[in-house]
Amino acid sequence: MSTASQAAGDTPAWPEDAIEVGRIIDAWGVKGWIKIHPFAADPQALFSTRRWFLKPPEPQGPKRPAPAAEAIPSFLKISQVKHHGDGVVALPLDVSDRSGAEALKGARVFVSRASFPTAEPDEYYWVDLIGMSVVNLQGEALGTVVSLLDTGPHSVLRIAPPDADPNDEAVQRLVPFVAAYVSDVSLADKRITVDWGLDY
C-alpha cells in the first residue's frame, strides 16, 4: 500500500487563506487516482494549484469516532487533475495504488485563496461575497451575505438581516445576484449595493 505521507520537513505550512473547495469521495481506478466532489459548479480552484491541503472528515453523529490523525495527511502534491463526469479526478504524488487512494476517502480539500484564478470582470467567487454587508440604493442596511444558492441561470444571495440569527432561514432575504438588482459590488469595502427595498 502506498500512501501520501509526507516528511514533517516537506509539509508546507497551512495557508492562512485556506478555502474548502471539495471532498474526496472515493478512489478512481487502480493506479492511485482519487475522485473529488467539488463545492463549486466551476471547480477551477482545484485546477489552479497542485498544492492541496487536507483535513479529516467531520464526524457524523455523536457516536462516530473521529478518524485517526495519521490516517489523513495534511498535504497532497497533485501531479494530474482533470474533469470526470460531474466531478474531478486527480492523481497525487506518492499514491500509486487503489488502497492508498481509498485511505484518503472522506478527506476535506482546501487550497489557498491566493491560488484561485483571477475572476473575469463582473464575476465573483462565492467565498468573496460571503460576509459582505448589503445595502440598498437608499443606504438602508439589508444585512450580511451568509451563503448563496445556485439556481442554474443565476446565483441568489442569502442575506441575514442585522441582529438576526444568521442560521435562521425564515428571516433571510433572498436577492438574485443579477445586474437588474445588483448595482455595485465593492470587494475593497466588502459591500454590495442592491436595488431592493426593506419591505420586499
TrEMBL record:
Similarity section: Belongs to the RimM family.
Domain notes: The PRC barrel domain binds ribosomal protein uS19.
RimM N-terminal domain segment(s): 21-114
HAMAP family per the UniProt record, alphabetical: Ribosome_mat_RimM (MF_00014)
Record carries keyword Chaperone: yes
InterPro entries found in the cross-reference section: PRC_barrel-like_sf, PRC_RimM, RimM, RimM_N, RimM_N_sf, Transl_B-barrel_sf
The protein's assembly and partners: Binds ribosomal protein uS19.
PANTHER family recorded: RIBOSOME MATURATION FACTOR RIMM
General function of this protein: An accessory protein needed during the final step in the assembly of 30S ribosomal subunit, possibly for assembly of the head region. Essential for efficient processing of 16S rRNA. May be needed both before and after RbfA during the maturation of 16S rRNA. It has affinity for free ribosomal 30S subunits but not for 70S ribosomes.
UniProt keywords, alphabetically: Chaperone, Cytoplasm, Ribosome biogenesis, rRNA processing
Gene Ontology molecular function, alphabetical: ribosome binding
Residue span(s) of domain Ribosome maturation factor RimM PRC barrel: 126-196
Pfam families xrefs: PRC_RimM, RimM
Any one annotated GO CC term: ribosome
Organism: Piscinibacter terrae
Cellular location(s): Cytoplasm
Keyword rRNA processing listed: yes
UniProt main location, coarse: cytoplasm
The name this protein goes by in its record: Ribosome maturation factor RimM
One GO term (biological process): rRNA processing
